[in-house]
Amino acid sequence: MPSKRNKSLSDVSAATSERMARVAQRDNACERALRSALHKRGFRYRLHRPVEGTRRTIDIAFVSKRLAVFVDGCFWHGCPVHGSAPKNNAAWWRRKIDANVARDHDTAIRLEASGWRVVRVWEHESVEVAADRISRLLRPVRGKNATFS
């Protein structure tokens, strides 16, 4: 008897469905590398914090700074540089990836509406460059002309 997962992917081969099920949805290598780089810089965070009103989670959440970091895979989230379109079942995959992109956009809107800043890091980005970008948001540079309140 086919599982529910296979039924929802009825127009995808069993082998493809099995391969998709094995893809790490959390704690993947890119996410772990970024977390390690941030931790080495002295930042502490929460993992997989729920997004209110949804079943979605923030990959890396800096709760006190209200900064949400998502680490997105190029294929699954439709990277404009490295995203690819499979030839088999092209229409199904286009709908799947478009739905992921729409969900990402909706998640960002929900978080921003509740006072969060959202950072998206593509898997192809350098970990150090991404960590630098996040660090700047967490520790704003204060120059000579900065006003302190």
Automatic annotation (TrEMBL):
Superkingdom field: Bacteria
GO biological-process terms attached to the record: mismatch repair
SUPFAM superfamilies: Restriction endonuclease-like
Keyword list, A-Z: DNA damage, DNA repair, Endonuclease, Hydrolase, Nuclease
Any GO MF annotation of the entry: endonuclease activity
NCBIfam families cross-referenced by the UniProt entry: vsr
Family assignment from sequence similarity: Belongs to the Vsr family.
Protein name (Swiss-Prot/TrEMBL): Very short patch repair endonuclease
